[in-house]
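Two quick folds needed for the group meeting slides. Do the first one here.
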Amino acid sequence: MSTSTEQAATRRPLSPRKRAQRIRFVQYAVLIALVIAAIVFADWPSIKDAFFRPDLIKESITGGLWDALWHTVVYTAGAFVFGLVTGTVLAIMRLSEIGPYRWLSTAYIEFFRGLPALIVFLIFSLLPLAFPALRIPFDPFGTVWLALGIVASAYMAETIRGGIQAVAKGQSEAARSLGMSSGQAMRKVVLPQAFRTMLPPLTNELILLVKDSSLVFIIGLTADQAELTKFGRDMSVQYANVTPLVVAGFAYLIITLPLSVIVRRLEASAGKAR
């Protein structure tokens, strides 16, 4: 009797927690094995020569990397401001009770959300051919801000619309009862509360804009206007080596990693507030 009881105990299925622990153990073991195999069998001299040549790392850092980094920041910041302002207007239009406003806003948002940013940049690069007299102010910065900002505004508009709708209707009604117009209630009461909840997703949009700025090279920038991707690409072609592009990639991390930390902290703060 005791023997059969012991056999039944040994055949008892694992609990979900024990099963999950064993699965995680196997996953970690496989990952460690793959890392060890990569370290042992990789051709490190060839990898170093192709991706991490010390002389090209130094040449990239001293040969204009910081100017390209600064241009990337300026292109991104201008596009973000344009996208934020335009996206706010579009979000308010989409929530409007006036039909044509809603239709125009919806058409704009759906069109530019569905259109690849690459196509928008190509269109702007060809505008001088279609309209020879057209001059965009602060070119090439103005061109980049418009092209990148137009796409960003379509995505931001939906984020802002969601933030506005998350604000309790009683807030707007209370503002109207105090004698504010609908515009004043939106500007002074609803939007400040909405933006507090929208900060994490808007910061994520900023990170995406930093990476989308890599498409700027399509409009034909000169060397002293280059952002990080064009800078790394030009140097990689010049020296027939990938190292400058790797350096440019790490330079993007200088921008995006702090922003990612900010997003996590904002999300944590919003979670505590709730």
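Then this one, please, same format:
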Amino acid sequence: MENTLWWIFFLALGIQFTYLMVVFGRFVFFHKAQREALQDTNLSGVSIIIAAKNEARNLQDLVPLLMEQDYPDFEVLVVNDCSTDNSEDLLRSLAETYTNLRIVNVRYTPDHVTAKKYALTLGIKVSKYETILLTDADCRPVSSHWIKRMSAPVRNEGKTFALGHGSYLALPGLLNKIIQYETLFTAIYYFSFGYWKSPFMGVGRNLCYQKSFFMEKKAFKSLWHIEGGDDDLFVNLYATADNTAIVAHPESITVSQPKTNFKAYFTQKKRHFHAGKYYRTKDKLKLGLYSLSHLVFWLSAVGIVILESTWEPIALVLGLVLTRAILQYLIIHRARKKLEGTGKVIWTLFFDLMYMIYFWTLGTKGYLSKTVKWK
């Protein structure tokens, strides 16, 4: 029994080290950040699309902020999705000040489609420009160069997709620290595989792609019935090694308002995990192999500590656990500095355990759920 447990422990540890040092490490330690000065040869127009439902308060702050972007030709197109607050009046008022603000008011959603996908499709269909840049109403670009950074691969390199990082505002409390850790670790996942030329997801808080490609693929065809997934599932379906770029620079990120209670957070993550079950099989394996080995690593380590009667094997296990914790700290520290411009991370070992519990509880519930809602 103990010999088998040791073999299981070392197998799980080997998989974990492979992910940390090879898959994540290649991006974190060797990816060269974009130069400070972008050599833009094509400053063609960009359409920023925002699907918003009852977001008047956020839109009042976001629209003026977007108008401060340092880019010569762009529009902000807000799709007002059946809002019952004063969003429509607010947007009309803002449009009198900002001539490049356009509004699409959705009065109803057909029964066979999901609300956000329908809203985004209407917005993209009537957008003026070929380059589409997506964000949410509660997001804020941290730099006036956000448009330029995020759209550069699509405009200048002919890429279909440009994947960006969407972080969350740092607030006091345990929940916010969990959100910060989970969001950063998710970004490490998809940036790392994107760097390995194997992209599998993006986030709608910060995503850029070609309008013509979207229309060619008939919008969200085959995804209409799935709540959520307008971002990660669309990327998962069509992103390839050749048509996708990652944008890793502190000037390219957006910051969103995080959930402030566990119930709202669990509802959000349930929707995300629900979409995840529609990923391609090979992409489920990318995520599942790490997560399964993560769980087995901790369970087998605890099992060995309980079953062994001498200090030598216990010390070996604890030493390997500590070695993995140090390596993970370095990965997360460097990733945050590369993506967000700051490297301050704490309690990585604690949140590593929290992440494991979160993944296997919420992940299972979301994967098995049949009904989820956007708003």
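Slide caption for protein two: The mean pLDDT is 90.
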